[in-house]
Amino acid sequence: MQLWPSDDRCRPKRGEYARLYALQELALRLNRSFDQHAIMEQATEWVAGLGLGVAILRLRPSDNSFQIETSGGLSPQTCAVLQALLGTAHADTLPEYVVRHQQAILIEDIKSEERFAELRDLAQSDDFRAILALPLLASAHTAVFMAFSASAHDLDPATTNILELLASQIALAIENAGVVAELHRRTVQLEQRHSQLRRAYDLVAAERRLLATVLDSAGGALLVTDAHGSVLLGNQALAQVLGLDSDRLIGLSLRETEVPASLVALMQQALICSEQHTGEIAFPDGRVFHVNIAPVQLLDQPAHAYVALFEDVSYFKRLDVLKSQFVTTVSHDMKSPLNVITSYTELLELAGPLNQEQADYANRIITSVHRLSALVSDLLDLARIEGRVGLRLVPCDITALMRTTVDDYRLLADEKRIDLLIRTTQALPLVWGDESRLRQVISNLLSNALAYTPCDGAIWLSTEADDQRVIMRIEDSGVGIDPYDVPHIFDPFYRGHPAQDGNSKGTGLGLAIVKRIVEEHGGAIGVESAINGGSTFWFTLPRAGDEI
To answer: Taking a C-beta distance cutoff of 8 angstroms, is the pair 78, 122 a contact?
Structure first.
């Protein structure tokens, strides 16, 4: 749009140069202001200074109607009438038309106006006849600039051009102010977000310091890795255990560090199984640590971290060695006296005839000595097993050992009318084992089943194999085991309820010896039982092709 038409009559005259200069000064002030309401007030004040009435109407998004934002040169009565005329949302008002068509409208005489007949009521409030309406279009706001005059001559082309320039400057200033306001709003949001993040960071940092303090204050060493075995956290106790700076381990895979290979192997087993895993690691200086590795997972999600707790068991290991040495020494030293007692008791009859009471006493002495000798033998056996003394692992046929042991107990089973049944349906792979010790395991479990199975019962022996191990089960129809006794059944010297026939007598070491033998072979052992429902003892052994 041209500032003024090319017609010489519309070229600015001297007075108009002053208004253009004043408009330029106003435009500078408007662009320096970032308050939209202040921009509109300055503009209306300037137009009112030209002797015109002016009002700026802003579209209200809530009900899509216009309301007066600011005005000048208009009486309160005129503003009230104008607001009443424009306060309802409809498409027939002058502001709606100007906005919709985005063009200026000049009404020279509102009394004779037919298109916007509602404006006739304004002629009764003030001496206004002509109205110029200009759109103020900004991206975030829609407004209309309205100028009022007593005559259309006051809104000549030159004045109209000036008002159009002013309207464009108002729209630009409002747009700029909106941009600045949005930038300010976003800046405030960013500052608030930054403040929140800073507080969150400080809180996390404080929690990490607290966690580090708690972990460093803990008595045991602690190691945390991710699901791939990379170190996430380690306390000061861990640094003392490993002799390494725990902070330098963070972010490294355990395989890339100088930690003991046994610890790496334990962690790898836990990662593969995704379940709790325990083991021991020994250091060249004689220290031994029990390591408990547990996965960290939420609900049914896969484990995302693993926590390893280290417990120094060196002292207990030394005590265990001393205990074993003591038991071995005492047991060995007791064998000779027990043999002497047995021999002299048996020689009593050679010294002269014994009456019935003396013979009973002698038999009780011999029976008690035999029990004590069995206990000494079991103690020596347990000490040798725990020390891995004389354990020679070779590929063994567990099915053949089972059949041989069953044949040894066939006569005893027949005396109690107990059926010994073998169930094998497949050719089994060989296992790693010491034949004499494995025969001892089967013998102890089978004799235990015979002792706790009443006459006319049955015992079933079965074997099977999977990809990594061979499994053997010995099931009986005996009296079963009390649920209270099951967790302790493999403890040394633990005796549960006596057998139903009351003839079972033992040292309480048989099952403990069995457990030690199986574990020294790299296997596992367990029991399933119910009162009067029989018992099933099972144990596993690694296949001969697998490493123990």
So the answer is: yes
- Select from 203, 197, 166 the least CA-distant residue to 50: 166
- Residue with structure tokens 């006569």? 411
What residue ranges in 227-338 does DSSP mark as E strands? 231-234, 277-282, 288-296, 305-312
Domain architecture of the chain: domains with CATH: 8-183 (3.30.450.40), 218-312 (3.30.450.20), 317-386 (1.10.287), 394-542 (3.30.565.10)
How do beta strands 394-396 and 65-72 pair?
A: unpaired
Q: Residue 537: pLDDT above 90?
A: yes
Tally Cβ neighbours within 10 Å of residue 435.
16
The span from the CA of 229 to the CA of 249, in Å, is 11
Contact between residue 253 and residue 229 where contact means Cβ atoms under 8 Å apart? yes
> Which amino acid does the sequence have at 76?
P
User: Which residue is it, tokens 């009022």?
Assistant: 148
Task: State how beta strands 525-529 and 469-476 pair.
Answer: unpaired
d(CA 228, CA 242): 21
pLDDT at 4: 38
- The CA distance from 536 to 526, in Å, is 8
Q: How far is Cα 366 from Cα 341, in angstroms, rounded to an integer?
A: 8
Q: CA–CA separation, 133 vs 43, rounded Å?
A: 15
Tallying the residues shown for the chain, one arrives at 548
Phi, psi of 65 (to 5 degrees): -120, 165
Helix (H) or strand (E) holding 340: helix 314-351
Predicted pLDDT at 45: 86
Q: Which residue reads 């049944």 in tokens?
A: 421
Q: Which amino acid is at 43?
A: A
CB 94 within 8 A of CB 103: no
Instruction: Report d(CA 150, CA 129) in Å as an integer.
Output: 5
Q: Give me the residue label for tokens 């099931």.
A: 475
Render pLDDT for 303-343 as a digit per residue (tens, 0 to 9): 778 888 888 888 877 777 776 666 666 666 666 777 777 77
Phi-psi region of 257 (alpha: psi -120 to 50; beta: other; left: phi over 0): beta
Place of tokens 């279009």: 137
For residue 477, give the nearest of 497, 504, 500 by alpha carbon: 500
Amino acid at 487: P
**Tokens at 297, concatenated:** 């997972």
The DSSP secondary-structure symbol of 543 reads B
- For 78-130, the DSSP string reads HHHHHHHHHSS--TTSHHHHHHHHT--EEES-GGG-STTGGGGGGGGTSS--E
* Tokens representing residue 44 in the block: 């209306």
How far apart CA 543 and CA 509 sit, in angstroms, is 27
Asked if 341 and 365 count as a contact pair (C-beta separation under 8 A), the reply is yes
